[in-house]
Amino acid sequence: MLKKMLVFVLVLGLISIPSLAYAQDNKESIQLYVNEKPTNIKLMTKSGTVYVPFREFIQLMGYQADYSVVDREISVKIGKSKFIFLPDDGYISGSGDYYELQRPGIQIDGKFFLPIRYAAWLTKHAVKYDKKSNTAWMVQYGYGQEKEILDLITTYDRAFTVELLASDHMQRSYLTDSKIAPQVSEIPDRIYNVDITSITYESANQALLYVTYIHNNQVMDDQHEIVFRIKKENNMWKILQDRYLSSNTTLPEDIDKSVHTIKENFNEKQQNVLSDLRQYYRAFNQKDFDLTYKYTSPFDIERMNANAVDEWRTWEHITRASFEYGDTTYHMSNERVVFLGENQAVVHATLEWSYISENIEQNHSIYESLIYLDYANGHWNYSYDHDISENEEDPNRMLPEIHFPELN
Predict the structure, then answer these.
(1) Which of 92, 170, 222, 395 sits at a 20 to 30 Å CA gap from 295?
(2) Distance between the two ends of the chain, CA-based, in angstroms?
(3) How far is Cα 334 from Cα 319, in angstroms, rounded to an integer?
(4) Residue 6 above 70 pLDDT?
């Protein structure tokens, strides 16, 4: 009856471990190591395939296998999935689907043996065979990879470069590595924490991560979640997919104290910051290109131009085009300096933004913002602003599925 049901063929012949798939029959038992530790399990070779005594192996992995004499089937629960082995037919049932094994299990003296490739796949292990020492090695997916993965997602958040992305990342072709080193922030961190809330290894070379970042500094308390799918390329972990799940930004509870301290100790300097920022918005609203250029961070202009793939994406071209084809204005109110360093400052303000395009389509919004400035050329210059009132939650907390061959 099983053969009449829908069968999905496991293309396990594609596994790139020919020393296991085509090993010669060996009268000597093969020593098995799991995660670099020797085991008491002895493997056997029959007709060029290496087999593992399944019940002993499953128990070693911390699972329990059951055998039904009536149904002549062996079942085992691994995580949330239940698998059923029918030695006579060579089928595996997992999560309701049926798979035909190219090399079914065998029974010897009442003991069930399964090809080691399938046993490794079921328990999420990679496997290789050293013919010279007659030894098989199994390594659990992700074994010893924790630090490298943590370093990857930390660097992604703090010092992103395109080289962190896999070659087939959907956005890689649109991004370029900055030719200008990022500025070192003068704003002191209070808390910075990266928490991998969950990790699921889909194979030896792919994993799904849910990561929470907590970044609290003197001007902002930020927590955001990202889901990643990562893969190994050239023996290095890379980002294959990434998407924000949620973001939550608030002002620190002692922000008023910071404002008061700045006014008390650096009143003239903080007044210069506010005056120069007002000058920038005045120039922008009046479409005064030269004055807007003067009060825009030269570091940001240089970085944007260095990364531009053509003249249409330079700061100058984009700014002139925005002045010519649209009418964008910013009106700032309730502004106050919340951080004041030697070369960097941050202003907390309410921004009222409006935009009218050529076809008279109008957009308008009012939001709380942190506005970042750099000091250069004898005055303060606008760098960018961050909307702290826009906290989001993605109801779909999964990345789109990508099919990976189970064994490759």
Answers:
(1) 222
(2) 31
(3) 27
(4) no
